[in-house]
Description:
Elements: H1 3-8, H2 20-38, E1 41-42, H3 43-50, H4 54-66, E2 70-73, E3 87-90, E4 96-102, E5 106-113, E6 117-125, H5 133-149, E7 157-164, E8 167-168, E9 175-178, E10 183-186, H6 188-196, E11 201-205, H7 206-217, E12 226-231, E13 235-241, E14 244-245, H8 276-280, H9 282-288, H10 297-309, H11 313-337, E15 341-346, H12 347-350, H13 352-366, H14 369-374, E16 376-379, H15 386-401, H16 403-411
Amino acid sequence: MNVSNWISGNGGDNRRGVSTEELRRHNLAAVLDRLHVSGPLSRSELTERTGLNRSTIGDLIGELEEVGMVEEGPAPSTSGPGRPSPVARVRPEGAVVLAVEVTVDSIGVKTIGLGGHVYNEQRLVRPRARFSPKETIEDIAKLSEPLLAALPDDHAMAGAGLAVAGLVRRSDGFVDLAPNLGWRNTPLGDMARAELGIDLIMMANEADMGALGEYRRGAGSRVGHLIYVAGEVGIGTGIIQNGVPMLGSAGYAGEAGHTMINPAGLPCRCGSIGCWETEAGEEALASKAGIPDGTHGQALLTVLIDRAEQSDSVTLEALGEIGRWLGLGVGNLINTFNPELVVIGGFYSDLYEYVEEGLRRGVMESSLEAPLGMAEIRRCELGVDAPLIGAAELVLSGVIADPAGFVARTNGGVAQSVQAGIDPDATPAVD
Ligand SMILES: [Zn+2]
């Protein structure tokens, strides 16, 4: 059975081999997902977009109202004659996520509800002093506390999503290796559960989260095959294939930053030589532009943009070269995955106008004509927020897949970790 057809439905009639209960759950998920992603919609718009009939839509809205995730009311603004039809909209407090991002330079936290509503946010910039996992978890708890306390009284906590710059095992948040944070074999998921007092914690690599964020709410919201490439200290890559995150067997897939691109290149923090990020990453950029060691992150960006705006030739040449190395790697990804869209994020998006030409040159050099002809390359839309938004979407996808089940677990006081039971494949596709 084709699940995407099943979710979009064609009238809510029962199909052979599918229980009424299962069908209803999928239809509920389809309606909630449309409202979550598209914003307020009238019943007739929902009918059109889901293929379900009007009376089924009415029943489903009623059920979503009962569990506190949707409310129906007048349209926000109306024009033209006649009585406006009411619209259904999500209630953000119906499911709220604590989204966290741990990068080499900072920790970002946001509280995000259904519909992508951001309640509050906070970012702590930290020196690149290689904080221990314990210090990091304590910082996350300190940053999160006031944000969680400020949530509406009637909110339902869905869980926390943590994006980490490293190899993160999806099943339990074990960090196998985070070379740029200096961590190895760290049970960060267990530590976060103990410190934050939130039962469900879902963790993933930050580029995987960024890809999900851009796919659900950014540049990729109309495509099924997307690759997200972000420049941080290294290069992070997240891949979505046919609407489903490509994770590999443990969640370690997409480490394209550590694929060899230059056998004669420099040593990488991962222990290898000539990795893509040693040629196109931040350190390479600073060194090619002649900017002294120790200038990195936002300070480096400021200097580079300043010099580029003044048409400094060394800086422009360095950005062109970095763009080409970036493009050579992107071309390899285009050949391997045949994406519709490559989204360029992280610091590359701040420098996009200066790296774009080199990037396109590199891509032309390394990719085959047919997949290249199908791949659009674009700057990201969510900027630095992409991984946080993706972290929220990851947790919310479990709520959306089974809203009634979520409420039953929460109300029963047994909001136990159902991490293993949440299938990322269950994220309903965006049409
Ligand atoms: Zn490497």
